[in-house]
Amino acid sequence: MITAGEKQYYSLALIHKLLRHLPASMTTSVLYDIACQLHHSCIKWGFLNKDLPRITFSTAVFRAFAHNWACQLVYHPRKLEGFGLSDGEGCGRL
What average pLDDT does the segment 68-79 reach? Predict the structure, then answer.
């Protein structure tokens, strides 16, 4: 979690803080380059344990093709309900 590369704890802290400000009945969707790794870390290490049912993880469309086929089937936003036509690259274009 604190090695070189993607610092997952920043993402976890941001998601945790966001969920503290939302009603407990509200769900949220996370589009992130390595959402699959973040989701697996949450499961493996028990992060966001009570909030995981409220979160849908997805990788950005263009990044999804770099992931293996099994990952694409589970985390591709076009295959998940609620993401519409969002490609997850909006902030990357700013």
Answer: 85
Q: Is the pLDDT of residue 25 over 70?
A: yes
Sketch the domain layout of the chain as residue ranges.
Answer: 28-93
Kindly report the CA angle at 8 between 93 and 23, in degrees rounded to 5? 85
**Residue 76 C-beta-side C-alpha neighbours within 13 Å:** 14
How far is the C-alpha of 58 from the C-alpha of 49, rounded, in Å? 18
For the entire predicted model, the pTM comes to: 0.82
Contact assessment for residue 29 and residue 83, using Cβ atoms and an 8 Å cutoff: yes
Q: Are 56 and 82 in contact (CB under 8 A)?
A: yes
Is the distance from CB of 67 to CB of 75 less than 8 angstroms?
Answer: yes
